[in-house]
Amino acid sequence: MNKNYIKKHHCKHIKYAWQSILFLIVALFYLVGCSSSSSDNNLNSESGFVTGSLLEAANSNIVAKSDSGEYVIPVDSFGRFSASLPVGVYSLAYRAATSNKLVLTNKTFVVANNVTINIVDADLVPQPQVIVVNIPVVNANSAIIEWETDIESDGYVEYGTNELYGVSSYVSSDLTKRHRVQLSSLMANTTYHFRVIASRHNLESTKFITQDYTFTTVQ
């Protein structure tokens, strides 16, 4: 057989072999890339399922809040709800149909991947209203502020020499309707501005802030 023919034929086989190897390498990189992308997508799409009932929110919405955002969940006429949520730690709030205001519930829950969470006993945390504010005692360097709320609450007083306030009293942490706070280290013969902040368990979403009030210390 012609040596040139054999050499040419052998080179052709080597060429095809290298092409096949190159094709396999490209295919392998493609498969690895797809696998990695699929794995990342699965990681990013991890979610669980939450279900429960909140009769106060019937025909309205509840809002599940986490560090990743807020998720609005519709509630049927029987107060039942269900939704798929990303993995995370959530607080639950009810969006009032009349005022569109978020009202916090006493429930915090954790959503894990492929796990169903059933929310039970999700009582609302109401917002107190300050109905009476009194200043029964004013001295040269101190004053006593009293207030009353419509429901049991905690709270504190913000005060200062103008409406920027700048100073806060200690928090009255006991849940009660009647509150009494003493402001001390005041300057004599000075007009002070103050307002009362009432809440439940010092939760931001339950805070009620009164109008501005004033009093003047004696000489």
Structure description:
- With 219 residues, the chain is of the alpha+beta class.
- The protein folds into 3 domains: 1-45; 47-119, Sandwich (Immunoglobulin-like); 130-216, Sandwich (Immunoglobulin-like).
- Helices cover 19% and strands 47% of the residues.
- The protein contains 1 helix and 14 strands.
- It is elongated, with a radius of gyration of 33 Å.
- It starts with a helix and ends with a strand.
- The model is unreliable at 34-43 (pLDDT under 50).
Briefly characterize the structure.
Helices cover 19% and strands 47% of the residues. About 5% of the residues have low confidence.
Which key features would you list for this structure?
219 residues, alpha+beta, Immunoglobulin-like, 19% helix
| Residue runs with pLDDT of under 50 for 5 or more positions | 34-43
Number of domains: 3
Query: Given the C-alpha coordinates, what overall shape results?
Result: elongated
Provide the succession of SSEs: HEEEEEEEEEEEEEE
